[in-house]
Amino acid sequence: MPSHAIEEPEYQLVQDLGGIELRRYAAYAVAEVVVPGPAGEAGNQAFPILAGYIFGKNKGERKFAMTAPVAQAAVPVKLDMSTPVTQVAAASGFLVQFVLPKGVTADTAPEPLDARVQLRQVPPARFAVIRYSGFWSESNYQAHLAQLQAAMRSANLAWEGEPVYSRYDAPFVPWFMRRNEIWLRLVQAP
Predict the structure, then answer these.
(1) H-helix segments, the chain
(2) pLDDT of amino acid 5
(3) Structural domains in the chain (count)
(4) What is the residue-averaged pLDDT of the chain?
(5) What CATH code is carried by the domain that includes residue 167?
(6) DSSP annotation string for 130-170
(7) Side by side, which strands form the sheet with 125-132?
(8) Cα–Cα distance, 118 to 2 (Å, whole number)
(9) Does a structural domain hold residue 181?
(10) What is this structure's pTM?
């Protein structure tokens, strides 16, 4: 578990693959919302909604300290031949999450007043992670995602689900000091 000024979910470093870390995360709770995006704007769309929840817009007006990361992943569109075209756009978007502080579970967290905010317990999982700095850009994200996927292929590691883009710093942090990560969930060995 790294030591940081802002609380993060607990994890153990399992292996370092030369710039790619394999991590085992313990369970943690999140407040999350789905927003339409695009990817570069999803965090800005979700932030006031989720910040409202942790700053007291909940039953009991309980306030929480800010934690890291703010995580974002595409919501995959699940289509079948009976899905109306009008529902396809509504089904896609981006899931943005705030991690809740240690000791808070989805069951013990106060109920959100905003129906868009959902609480969820994230089960323990293993992730391959690449860390990089800079502002959000599609090209920076795609380059690091490709590097992470190539390293995983070289190590014969399989992943599942959508990549998770994780931001750790406030907007006022200079670009060269920002910590960004991309997480890919490792397929569990049988």
Answers:
(1) 39-54, 85-91, 138-154
(2) 61
(3) 1
(4) 89
(5) 3.20.80.10
(6) EEE-S---HHHHHHHHHHHHHHHHHTT--EEEEEEEEE-S-
(7) 11-16, 20-25, 125-132, 180-186, 159-167, 70-75, 93-99, 28-35, 118-122
(8) 28
(9) yes
(10) 0.87
